[in-house]
Amino acid sequence: MQEEPSLTDEGKEQRTTTSAAPRSEAFRVGIRKLYHHRCAVCGVRALGPGDGSAIVDTAHIYPKSEGGADDLRNGLCLCKNHHWAFDEGWLTVTSDHTVRVHPDLPSDADYNFIREYDGDTLHLPDDERFHPHLLYLEARRELVGETFDMSEVS
């Protein structure tokens, strides 16, 4: 006879130790407010019921894992899909805030949610003082390797 499943793992706690860079709640909240809870790439804005959780994440342009600053100019508000694509290196942002897609992006339709924004300008905060800063954009591209076509978009 099989044992009945348990809904939770209560009583099965394990102690672990991890090391991670501290995340700033002010950075997370600030980026979402500056971008009006919209993805900088596609413009989607969706909030969950009740607590108002958002479909968007806050992403560091120059990654926190590399010591990236919690400066609002080092942040982007991205939907779950575009945050993943940015972190994976499938898309980047030029110095003039243009979205560029990695040349090796697979050609099948599953990647159209990335490809369709190639050459578009980011949806940016109204206040230019909080636009992504060149320092972070250039450091990001240097970190991931300059494999993108950074020529001007026509």
SSE class: alpha+beta
Question: Helices and strands, in N-to-C order?
Answer: HEEHEEHH
* Helix percentage range: 10-25%
Main-sheet strand order equals 1-2
Radius of gyration, in Å, reads 18 Å
Q: End-to-end span in angstroms?
A: 68 Å
Principal-axes geometry comes out as globular
* Main pleated-sheet profile: 2 strands, antiparallel
How many helical stretches? Answer: 4
Overall pLDDT: 88
- Total number of strands: 4
Strand content: 5-15%
- Uncertain segments are none
Secondary structure: elements and pairs:
Layout (H helix, E strand, L loop, with lengths): L24 H10 L21 E5 L14 E5 H9 L2 E3 L5 E3 L10 H4 L18 H11 L10
Antiparallel strand pairs: 1-2, 3-4
Task: Give a structural overview.
- The strands form two sheets. The protein has a two-stranded antiparallel ribbon. A two-stranded antiparallel sheet has the order 3-4.
- The N and C termini lie far apart (68 Å).
- It is α+β, with helices and mostly antiparallel strands.
- It is globular, with a radius of gyration of 18 Å.
- It contains four helices and four strands; from the N terminus they run H-E-E-H-E-E-H-H.
